[in-house]
Structure formats: structure tokens, C-alpha cells
Design brief:
CATH class: Alpha Beta
Helix content: 10-25%
Strand order of the largest sheet: 2-1-3-4-16-15-14-11
CATH architecture: 3-Layer(aba) Sandwich
CATH superfamily: Class I glutamine amidotransferase (GATase) domain
Number of helices: 6
Distance between the termini: 22 Å
Number of domains: 1
Strand content: 25-35%
Shape: globular
């Protein structure tokens, strides 16, 4: 069945690459929009995000989209990407401290400036490039092997890998959450639209996901 998917436009940069990836994933109508009525009328919603968490929160608030996103929770499937995931948590250290939407409990904290890998090599911040994601059982991982590599670009992370909402982890200096989920919400720190075939598969899974965990 053909669906309509909204990519929320709040001034964050990777909107059209996300939209193109979702179009490639299935035969659906994809709209990039900041209109609340349009977002309310679609079947599924994607909350993208690049840049600073503070800028993204301001972009949502200035357009009145923070309330729109909160009203979506539990009503229809929502997928969040990168900073989109971060602004669904309670608080972030970036930008002198940001109170976020609170959909997921927990805070976003900065990677330590001095980190080393398993061979003792220094690790740079931001965490940029391909890295393995260790899965926790969830329908959104269907058809994607455990420890598949996805593309990351971030300097801040959700560090509490034991939180109930964590459904995927990654390791960069220390473990952090790569994916969070609750009823009808699935959020990832990495960029599926930059992650080739398995990134497209994740969007394809979102288009058929019934919202259960």
C-alpha cells in the first residue's frame, strides 16, 4: 500500500538526502515539510538532524514543531536520525546545556577529548566514519546482520547503554547507544542515508514497521 512519509523541515541540513533515501526504499510519497497539518495527516514521520543540538532545538521551537513532534509520540511511527535522536532525550551538554523533548530518559554527553582504541591508538573527536552496531532484538533490524557497519558523524553521545530504551550499541573509546526505541519511535545516532544498502534496508523496515518493540 502506498504511504505518505513526512521528513520534518526545521532548518536542519540533510533533509533531501534523507528524503531521497526513503524514496529509494519504497514506493511512497515523501514530503519535506514544516507544516503541522501536513505532518499530522501523513502515515509516518522522520525527524532528521545535523549540526549542533542547540540549533536543532531552536529550529523546532521557532517553528512550533517541538509540540508537533511530542503530539506524534504513540500516534504514528516516528524515526529520528542523528541529532534527531539526541533531541528526543531529556538534556544535552552541547551549546552550554540544552533541555530537549524528553521522549527518552537520559542525557547526551560529550565524548572525552582523550580516548584510545583497542590497540591503544588515539581516537579523534568527532567520531566520524563507519562503525559496527551491536543489535538488541527489535523488528527494525529485520534483514540487517548483527554488527553491520553504519556511518556516524557526532561529538556527543548517549552513554548509558544499559537504559531500557537502548536497542543498539556501538563502541568508540567506550560503548554508547547507537539506537533507542519505545512504542512507535525508533531513533538512531548514525546516518542510514549515508550507509549504503543496509541503511536503505533500515528505511525499508521503517516503511513496514507496525510500531511495536
Amino acid at each position: 500500500m502506498r504511504q505518505t512519509v513526512a521528513v520534518i523541515d526545521y532548518g536542519s541540513g540533510n533533509l533531501h538526502s534523507v528524503a531521497k533515501a526513503v524514496e529509494h526504499a519504497g514506493s511512497n510519497q515523501v514530503v519535506v515539510t514544516s507544516d503541522a497539518a501536513t505532518i499530522a495527516a501523513v502515515d509516518r514521520v522522520i525527524l532528521p538532524g545535523v549540526g549542533a543540538m542547540g540549533d536543532c532545538m531552536r529550529g523546532l521551537q521557532e517553528r512550533g514543531l517541538d509540540r508537533v513532534v511530542l503530539d506524534l509520540i504513540g500516534s504514528k511511527p516516528l524515526m529520528a536520525v542523528c541529532v534527531g535522536m539526541q533531541i528526543l532525550t531529556e538534556y544535552g551538554e552541547e551549546s552550554s546545556g540544552i533541555h530537549a523533548l524528553g521522549v527518552f530518559q537520559g542525557h547526551i554527553t560529550q565524548f572525552p577529548r582523550s580516548m584510545t582504541g583497542c590497540a591503544g591508538e588515539p581516537l579523534k573527536v568527532p567520531h566520524m566514519g563507519w562503525n559496527e552496531v551491536m543489535q538488541v532484538s527489535h523488528p527494525m533490524w529485520e534483514g540487517i546482520p548483527d554488527r553491520t557497519r553504519f556511518y556516524f558523524v557526532h561529538s556527543y553521545r548517549y552513554a548509558d547503554i544499559h537504559a531500557e530504551c537502548v536497542v543498539g550499541t556501538c563502541d568508540y573509546g567506550s560503548p554508547f547507544a547507537a539506537a533507542l526505541a519505545r512504542d512507535r519511535v525508533f531513533a538512531v545516532q548514525f546516518h542510514p542515508e549515508k550507509s549504503h544498502d543496509f541503511g536503505i534496508q533500515l528505511y525499508r523496515n521503517f516503511l513496514t514497521w507496525d510500531g511495536t518493540c
